[in-house]
Write a structure and sequence with these properties.
alpha/beta; Nucleotidyltransferase, domain 5; five-stranded mixed beta sheet; elongated; 18% strand; 37% helix
């Protein structure tokens, strides 16, 4: 609070009365108290930035002498490389001289645009997308509990009819592209995704022919 201090008055020379001198003193104690109250309020009510992370499980290296892994059923393999380029193929990879006499694998190219990777994943994973959409509609109409909906949605992404996506990168791919790919898989309800598998020499050779 402000106070006015009276310094008193008196008579000057010639009997003239001098005006009283007044000075102002501001008490800052209430202002300090208010500042501490506001600081305490904002500290207790503020939400601090939390680090965002994504859970990711990488496959372990197989022990020496292990048999080759089984063929990926209903799978799509994406090869990431420089300049934000994405190449992919569906099913198993076959070389030109494979013993099964299958036609050699051809790489197709896509990109990170809505009409590229997103559209491709939505088409390839149509069964799971439609299944989860139907479950969400039942949950909205109170026909499914929230916990039941979440459990059934996870089961749908793990079903054999849902696609399995393998992500492989060469030495020129960026971490940003790998993260963008994982984000898109999450959006498109792709639950079976594998990252960290080393690119085969035949895949790498075919990829190099495409990016020349």
């Amino acid at each position: 609070m402000a106070e006015i201090a009276d310094s008193g008055g008196g008579h000057g020379k010639g009997g003239k009365k001098r005006a009283k001198k007044q000075s102002t003193r501001v008490d800052m104690t209430p202002m300090v108290d208010l500042a501490f109250l506001l600081l305490t309020f904002f500290v207790l009510t503020s939400t601090f930035s939390k680090p965002k992370s994504m859970e990711l499980s990488l496959p372990a290296d197989p022990p020496p002498g292990s048999p080759p892994p089984p063929e990926v059923k209903n799978g799509v393999t994406f090869l990431l490389t420089k300049d934000d380029k994405i190449f992919y193929y569906a099913g198993q990879f076959y070389t030109a001289d494979n013993p099964k006499g299958m036609p050699p694998t051809q790489l197709k190219e896509t990109n990170f645009s809505p009409e590229g990777l997103h559209k491709l994943l939505m088409e390839q994973n149509k069964w799971a997308v439609d299944e989860i959409k139907g479950l969400a509609e039942k949950n909205k109409n109170k026909l499914l509990a929230d916990t039941t909906f979440k459990r059934m949605a996870v089961d749908a992404t793990a079903d054999n009819r849902a696609i399995t996506v393998l992500i492989k990168t060469d030495d020129q791919a960026t971490y940003k592209n790998a993260i963008d790919m994982l984000d898109e898989l999450k959006i498109c309800n792709v639950g079976k995704r594998v990252l960290g598998v080393e690119m085969m020499a035949t895949e790498y050779a075919l990829l190099q022919e495409k990016i020349k």
